[in-house]
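Fresh eyes needed here. I'd like your take on this protein's tokenised backbone:
***
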Amino acid sequence: MSSIYQINKGINKPIEFRGLRGHYIAWLAIGLVVLLLTFIALYLLGAGLMVIMPLVFALGSSLFFSVFRLSKRFGVHGLSKYLAKRELPDYVKFRSRRVFTGLRVMPGNAERQVV
């Protein structure tokens, strides 16, 4: 009976496609759609194909290289952590003691009272 069903051993692992992991696949897909729309817009505006094609190929190759480089450098969740860490302040400044004097001890934490 066990030979009929296949066991999926990839549970809780991020999706991976040709070395891209996690949300980088979506970034690449969105970038390719933007490139396609750029090509269409330039073509409809009347730009020549000898101008459009090298531009789209250059932008596409830079998109591929940058997304693969980000995926390799940061991994699945590393870029999100990096961007979140950049948003943290270096220090917190309080101009008043009211923040601390207004603190109350929770009923269950009576042993943690500050003297």
Notes: Helices lie at 24-44, 49-74, 78-86, 98-101.
